[in-house]
Write a structure and sequence with these properties.
alpha/beta; 2-enoyl-CoA Hydratase, Chain A, domain 1; 2 domains; 8-stranded mixed beta sheet; 5-stranded parallel beta sheet; 20 helices; 25 strands; globular
């Protein structure tokens, strides 16, 4: 007995799991295993790319959001079940970008090609769920459910009229007419340049929606356009239009799939995970050698100095201190063989974006480092990843907006209307730059313009160094221009591909054998209300801040909308 306890802990765990697996197998061997005709695959909440690592002990009982990788693994196991006819996919409140849903559809298509049936059951539906309909044998909708299919829209806003009524004067300086961010405050109506940009983005997204709907009828775009223009749909109209095949109540689903035969109602359909748990032999040996790690670092939200902040119910702030610490920890950790930096940001403070760029560029000099854009990496959000060894972008994502602007609001007239008197006493030629009580003088405006030009030149220089291209080539994509990923090849983007393509490139560059690595996602601990005072202080110091930001774009689905519960790097250290 003493010899056993001298064994290494990893070997003890291996032996314990092995003997428990044998015991379970022997106990279940006399029993007949019943496999249902269909298993239910529920997809609820945000859709991740990677399944979170299984936490020890009680953490295993916790239900995690669905993932493309985890769902594919479940489907691969179900495909081996000879008595199983197929799966019933039930998306409900599923959140995820179009590229993630298309990747999920690929996994369902692979399962279908194994000879199994894929049934899509919807209580409510939108264009998001119709991505999965293209690979389903049957699409069922609950009576009374709706199919919300209405195309795409974006609202263009101008606040200048309101500011004039309040007596607030916006003073902004920018490089290039395509840097339209300040127009939110300086214009009553959107400029033609900004309107054309949004129109171009909407056209691209509308074409993708039509393509998704057209897959239901073998790629018939004419039918798809007619269907989209006819939305939204009640359940009866959706059936008539051919968007769904049948209307079935939830409680009748099992009987419907059984063909309605027999007087005894069939039992409810079990979850897919429950079917796999009934297998008699379930032992899988734990790895005796730790796997190499591919670290994933997200940059999500408006980039700022300091630590990341997530205000409850408000925007996410990506703090450069937090992100730089995470990238540096991945660079120093010998277990991490490569890094994928994910940008889901429209930009932020120039200085913060520059520091993130330097950390990513430094990491790329030592380890394979890829960048991935799923929705948007604009302005400072693009600068932050421009130092990566290779940039991947999902179809239809937005990149670029290489430009800079700075500004402030003169509130002296507004305060005077409220009965507040302010008199500014200066010591120093440019002392008025830091005050919002009086408009800028001509010489102060020249200082601001010169500073913005300097920030822009540094922006171009950083991108040129990171992309190993001459500055003149980058300038052709500058002055605030925003591009669809397909338009930015090969200068701003190296390859059109999804998150999996970025990971594969890193693995290939690191020369890691199959099965010897795993993806570990960085988990960021953000400050809530505690970070609000510092954030307000930054916003109050706008005259000293130069922003690389691209607001006014149509809303997108955030990439990192479900990082809760994922273990990994936390503020630069590995969480155990």
């Amino acid at each position: 007995m003493s010899v056993i306890f001298r064994l290494p802990p990893v070997l003890l765990v291996f032996l314990l799991g092995f003997f428990l697996g044998i015991l379970r197998f022997l106990l279940l061997l006399p029993l007949r295993r019943r496999v249902p005709t269909h298993a239910v695959l529920r997809l609820e909440g945000p859709l991740l790319w990677q399944a979170p690592p299984r936490a020890p002990w009680m953490g295993r009982l916790r239900r995690h959001p669905p993932s493309v990788e985890g769902t594919g693994r479940i489907l691969a196991e179900l495909a081996k079940e000879p008595g199983l006819r197929g799966v019933v996919v039930m998306p409900q409140g599923l959140k995820g970008s179009l590229v993630r849903l298309e990747a999920l559809a690929e996994e369902l298509g692979r399962f279908r090609r194994s000879g199994k049936e894929v049934v899509l059951y919807l209580r409510e539906a939108s264009a998001r769920e119709l991505v999965l309909a293209a690979v389903a044998d049957r699409v069922l909708l609950a009576p009374g459910g709706t199919v919300t299919l209405v195309g795409s829209a974006a609202a263009l806003t101008g606040l200048r009229g309101l500011l004039d009524r309040l007596g607030i004067s916006p003073e902004f300086f920018r490089i290039g007419d395509h840097k339209t961010a300040p127009e939110l405050f300086t214009n009553e109506h959107p400029s033609e340049i900004h309107r054309q940009l949004v129109e171009r983005i909407l056209d691209a997204r509308y074409r993708r929606v039509l393509d998704v709907v057209a897959r239901r009828k073998g790629g018939d775009l004419g039918w798809a356009e007619k269907v989209v223009d006819g939305g939204p749909y009640t359940s009866g109209r959706a059936l008539e239009a051919g968007l769904v095949d049948e209307l079935v109540y939830p409680i009748d689903l099992a009987a419907h799939l059984a063909g309605g035969q027999g007087k005894v109602a069939p039992p409810p359909l079990p979850p897919a995970e429950a079917v796999l748990r009934t297998r008699k032999w379930r032992f899988s040996a734990p790895p005796l050698v730790p796997k190499a790690r591919i670290a994933v670092v997200p940059i999500s939200g408006i980039i700022r100095t300091g630590k990341s902040v997530l205000l409850p119910g408000g925007p996410r702030m990506a703090g450069e201190e937090t992100i730089v610490a995470q990238v540096e920890a991945a660079r120093r950790d010998p277990r991490v063989r490569g890094v994928v930096v994910v940008s889901d940001s429209r930009g932020g403070m120039a200085s913060a974006s520059d520091r993130i760029w330097h950390a990513v560029w430094r990491c790329a000099q030592e380890k394979p480092t890829a960048a991935y854009v799923e929705t948007e990496a604009a302005s400072g959000g693009y600068l932050a990843i421009a130092g990566a060894g290779r940039i991947f972008a999902a179809p239809g994502s937005l990149v670029g907006s290489i430009g800079a602007f700075a500004g402030r609001f003169a509130v002296g007239e507004f305060l005077a209307r409220l009965g507040v008197h302010q008199e500014l006493l200066r010591r120093g030629k440019n002392a008025g730059l830091l005050s919002m009580f009086e408009p800028l003088r001509e010489e102060e405006q020249e200082v601001m313009r010169a500073e913005v030009e300097q920030v822009y030149e540094e922006f171009v220089d950083r991108v040129a160094r990171g992309r190993s291209r001459p500055p003149g080539e980058i300038r052709a994509y500058g002055e605030g221009r925003v591009f669809l990923a397909e338009e930015a090849l090969p200068v701003l983007v190296d390859e059109i591909g999804d998150f999996r393509a970025a990971v594969r490139w890193v693995v290939e560059q690191a020369k890691l054998p199959a099965g010897s690595w795993e993806v570990q996602v960085v988990r960021t601990r953000t400050a809530g209300y505690a970070g609000l005072p510092a954030l307000l202080g930054e916003l109050a110091s706008t005259p000293r801040t130069y922003w690389l930001w691209a607001p006014g774009l149509p809303p997108t689905e955030p990439f990192w909308d479900a990082v809760v519960g994922i273990r990994g790097y936390t503020d630069g250290t590995w969480e155990r």
